[in-house]
Sequence to fold (277 residues):
Amino acid sequence: MRRIVWILLLIAVPCWSAAQSTAVERTLVAAKAQLMSADYRADLPRLARVRAQLAPLREDPHWGYLADYWTGFASWRMAINGVAKNMRKQDIKANLDDAVADFEAAARLRADFADAAAAAASVHSWLGYAFADDQTIARVHYQRATELLERALQSAPDNPRVLWVQGGFYLFKPVEFGGDPAHAEKIYERQAQVAPPLDANSPLPDWGKPEAWMSLAFAHLNQTEPDLISARKEAHVALGLQPDWHYVREILIPQIDAAIVRRASPRAEFQQPVRRQ
Fold:
């Protein structure tokens, strides 16, 4: 009898663990969809709510690295969308600090998880540029950003989200520090080409194609000699892929249209666009 009990336990425990893992995976799949939608709609309260709901899953032995990634993503996108919504600077920094901690945690749990390394690189770069009053601290952020991006590129050179971060480095860095907007545009073109269709049944990140088109539009709008026709076409491709994208619909396309009007009226003053990355 005792032997039968032990046999039943040996069967039951793995089954329970598998069922628990499947439940966590389903939760992550649902959270991913909610976070992506909230990001495109610039719904900061929803981003914060889903981030809080996911926090306990970061201890999961199998899926914890993805819970870390998606909580980091929520904080990252709260900061990005917060810029356009006039979020206080200290709140933007707090979200970025949370994001980089979660992305770094995900990258530690899965050394081959290029998405987390690239996202952490992007946040470190932003923290070094905008929030480090001490140049020594800024250099630490920049060095870490470079290390993480190199790691991500070695692991997954054609990952669309890695390419998005790499393109941003070339687009926003000053030329004297390696910036090259033309090269950034080539990277975004590659990103648009390789980004696969979204998989609604997977908890893994798969965003990237709309972001590539948005970034191309932003780059063409802001290059020395703006290519406004290309920028407008690319922005509308991005909006076609994500019709609820607040930034593209309410900010980027109006900026492009205003630039087209200004080109027809040379005396009008140029207004700088809101930075997306």
In short: The CA atoms of residues 58 and 67 lie 5 Å apart.
